[in-house]
Amino acid sequence: MSFPLYAPAEEHQMLRETVRALSDEKIAPHAATVDESAEFPWDAYKALLAAELHAVHIPEQYGGAGADALAAVIVIEEVARACASSSLIPAVNKLGTVPLLLSASEELKQAYLPRVARGEGMFSYALSEPEAGSDAAAMKTRAVRDGDHYVLNGTKMWITNAGVSEFYTVMAVTDPGAGARGISAFVVEKGDEGVSFGAKEKKLGIKGSPTRQVILENVRVPADRMIGEEGTGFKTALATLDHTRITIAAQALGIAQGALDYAIGYVKERKQFGKPIAEFQGLQFMIADMAMKLEAARQLTYAAAAKSEAAMHGDRAPDLTFFSSAAKCAASDAAMEITTDAVQLLGGYGYTRDYPVERMMRDAKITQIYEGTNQIQRMVMARQLLK
User: Fold this and answer.
1) Left (φ > 0), alpha (ψ -120 to 50) or beta: where does 199 sit?
2) Contacts of 116 (CB under 8 A, 6+ apart)
3) pTM over 0.85
4) What is the DSSP string of 86-146?
5) Of 223, 246, 268, 344, which sits 20 to 30 A from 387 (CA to CA)?
């Protein structure tokens, strides 16, 4: 099986047009309200679900669309161009379910993946803790075997779409003496007794996507809800991020594209000194640099997506880890620069909430932080290069 590395196929272009039209019509009009109210974008979820775009990555044998990694990137990118909060619906559904796709038993996949594909619930990912951020292996959440169950206790932090999602991939320590090799992965359901959620974090951006603690108090989980073998959870977590950092790159690309598109429209209309400001060379250079950085990051992201797809099909992709970290880091750094420049190009208007670019600038910031800070990404890349 070969994947065209740098050229999206015709189906990908058609998909982009479909998602862009849907996003422009059903998602963009609500983006400012979602940001202002910090309410989950249910309208966007319903629109994505109706078009079967809420979790395109789920394979056909589990009732999903069976879309490849590049298609998933394009969906996230186009939704993020309209509303970054809404783009976390397809992105987090992928993040939560990739551990199952990589490591779970066939029974566990059949139990949960069709339900996500049908839209019966979203799937979040619970790795971080108050004292275990970049150092995820330092987690304290415990899972103790009790007959044919495990009993989970602990607090997970920074969990995207917590409280809204029905399902959670939760990492917990099953063997405290074994370090990273003593961590296992479980599926926890929102309705399991002992599961509760902290208050919504008050955030700079992506306000429509709730970020909350997931609190586990004597939560009894059937042993067959373990994802993979005992002690393989951390390995699964790292392998998952190799695939899903690319979705954060996609989100960053979309946010940046939205800001660039808006800024280009603005500078062509805005007149100063008797002519459109687009005619001033200093601004032309800014626009050129913004587009150049965005396109460079996009090509890197699409190449990383092709490697992710190959790895999912069992092809050797030894440089996937480097490419996914590089794509996430490059795209998020580019998005922060591009959105900041877009605010600058709009001048005083860019700083007001009457225009969307200040929201895009706030939303872009998180892409440099979550799923591994860009400092961590640089460490990951360096390790790949130096090993």
Assistant:
1) beta
2) 55, 58, 64, 93, 96, 97, 122, 123, 167
3) yes
4) HHHHHHHHHHHHHHHHHH--HHHHHHHHHHHHTTS--EEEE--BTTBSS-GGG---EEEEE
5) 246
In eight-state DSSP terms, residue 194 is T
Contacts of residue 131, Cβ cutoff 8 Å, sequence gap at least 6 = 138, 140
Backbone phi, then psi, for 203, in 5-degree steps?
-115, 165
Instruction: Specify which residues 142 forms β-bridges with.
Output: 153, 173
**Helix/strand/coil for 168:** strand
Q: What sign results for the dihedral spanned by CA atoms 177, 169, 220, 212? A: positive
SS3 (DSSP) at 337: helix
Nearest to 295 by CA among 22, 87, 6: 6
CA–CA dist 325, 146 (Å, integer): 39
Best CA proximity match to 280, nearest among 289, 270, 290 = 270
Tell me if residue 279 is catalytic.
no
Cβ neighbours of residue 354 closer than 8 Å, sequence gap 6 or more: none
Query: In a structure prediction context, what are the per-residue pLDDT tens digits for the chain, which is 387 residues long?
Result: 445 555 688 999 999 999 999 999 999 999 999 999 999 999 999 999 999 999 999 999 999 999 999 999 999 999 999 999 999 999 999 999 999 999 999 999 999 999 999 999 999 999 999 999 999 999 999 999 999 999 999 999 999 999 999 999 999 999 999 999 999 999 999 999 999 999 999 999 999 999 999 999 999 999 999 999 999 999 999 999 999 999 999 999 999 999 999 999 999 999 999 999 999 999 999 999 999 999 999 999 999 999 999 999 999 889 999 999 999 999 999 999 999 999 999 999 999 999 999 999 999 999 999 999 999 999 999 999 999
- Give me the catalytic one of 77, 78, 309, 371: 371
CB 358 within 8 A of CB 372: no
Give residue 111's identity as a one-letter amino acid code: A
